[in-house]
Amino acid sequence: MGSSPSLPCRLRDAMTGAKRARRKEARPGELLQAALDLFVEKGFAATRSEDVAARAGVSKGTLFLYFGSKDELFKAVVTENLAGRFTEWNQEFESFEGSSPEMLRYALNTWWQRVGSTQVSGISKLMMSEGRNFPELSAFYHQSVVAPGNALVRRILERGIARGEFRAMDLDQAVHAVVAPLLFMILWKHAPEVCGGAAALDPARYLAAQADLLLHGMCTRQGLAADGGAAGS
C-alpha cells in the first residue's frame, strides 16, 4: 500500500487551495477595478475586453466567465461604484438632522469627496462624451444614476420647501441648477485644459460659492437664518 501524504504536504495543499479560493473570490473586484481604470483612461469604445483581462492578470476567457460582454462589464462598473450606493445615500437623507440649507451644503461636499474627486467621476465624463454612440448604455446610466441622483436632490429641495426654509420654486429646473456645478467639476477634473487649467479652481471654495448662490436664490428668511454656512451672513 502506498503511504499517505505527509502532514506538511497536506498543509501545503490546503494553503494552496485556500489561496486559490481567495483569489477566485477577489477576481470580480479586480476585473471591475481594471475595467474602471481603462474606461476612464481610454474611454468605452477604445477599451478592449482583452485589455481589461490583461490589466487584471487573467485570460479573456476568465473575464467572460464573470461578465458576458463588455457592455455587461460596464454596467457592473457603474452599479458597483455609483448606482449601488443610492440606498446608502437615501438612508443618510432620512437620518439627517440639520436644516435643509445645511443638508444641501453637505450633499454638495460629500458628493465631491466620495465621487467627484475620485476616479469614479470619469464614468460620468465618459457618458457625456460617448453616451450618444451607445444608446443602450446611455439609457442604463440615466435610469440607474442620473434619475435617482436627480430624485435625491429633489427630495432635499422638497424638504426645504415643506419646512419653510426654501421658497416655492420650479423643482424640475432647480434640480438642474444644483447638478450643473457638479458636472462642471467633473469636466474640470478630467479636462482641465478646457476649463481654465488645473490650478484655476479650488473645489472647496467653488462648492461654497455655488452653495451661497443657490441658497440666496432659494432660501426664505427662515432658511437663511437656519443656514450654518456663508449664506446666513
TrEMBL record:
Q: Which InterPro entries match?
A: Homeodomain-like_sf, HTH-type_TetR-like_transc_reg, HTH_TetR, Tet_transcr_reg_TetR-rel_C_sf, TetR_C
Keywords (alphabetical) are: DNA-binding, Transcription, Transcription regulation
Keyword presence, Transferase: no
DNA-binding interval(s)? 48-67
One molecular function GO term is: DNA-binding transcription factor activity
Entry keyword Transferase:
no
Q: Which Gene3D superfamilies match?
A: Homeodomain-like (1.10.10.60), Tetracycline Repressor, domain 2 (1.10.357.10)
All residue ranges annotated as the HTH tetR-type domain in the record: 25-85
One Pfam family recorded for the sequence: TetR_C_11
Question: What is this protein's name?
Answer: TetR family transcriptional regulator
